[in-house]
Amino acid sequence: MFGAEHYSDELLEPNVDYIFQSSNPFVGEDQLAMKGAEMLRNGNIPEAIQYYEAGVQQNPQDSNLWCQLGLALAENEQDAKAISAFKKSLEIDPKNQEALLAISVSLANEAMENEALANLEKWIQVYTNNSFSSTTPTTRSPTFSPYSMLDMNKFNEVEAMFLDAARRQTVQNIDATLQNALGILYNISRNYDRAIDSLNTALAVKPEDARLWNRLGATLANGDRTPEAIDAYRRALTLFP
Questions:
Q1: b/e per residue, 126-136, with b = 16+ CB within 10 A?
Q2: Does the reported pTM lie above 0.85?
């Protein structure tokens, strides 16, 4: 959806343990999160992943570090493994907004759209401080089988929550994070025009966000707007070579 879709049988299991790489040379070092972030900025994603893996082995209860590992894996097009990392992040902190958004993208890429929608619903509940049960399974809805068609009734409910939050903002006070989340939501329903509008609104606030430009490029490509997609991808590469 935000790139090539992949299908992994391991995602049928609700609680897949994260499998670490063997012989990680960075285990035992200090400042692992900082080093991982530096590798990611330099475009060295494989080493960033190794630093983050070493970091979460050293600090297994660090929700944000698990989330950063998941984001690095997603950048490396390893969505199935990223989902396992995001699950760990959300087991520790079920209200980690960055992890809820990121796992929604990875689940959508794995064609698990209802599960992605369930996490977006949790995200908007946290965002608007509505009721949220941390005991609810993080990445799957019990009423759907994996890879089932998107439940449009549920989508409409979640969309209404998002639009209500968006209406509360003024033109002078647009939240790029909310607009990015709307872009993810509309990608799930394949309403690419609405997704593009939302992502462009987010980019008007955060024009130097490479991940937003990359997401816009993928959305434009999905909407058969190839020349614009190429421009967006080029902008992303300029910001994050």
A1: ebeeeeeeeee
A2: yes
- Per-residue pLDDT tens for 31-66? 999 999 999 999 999 999 999 999 999 999 999 999
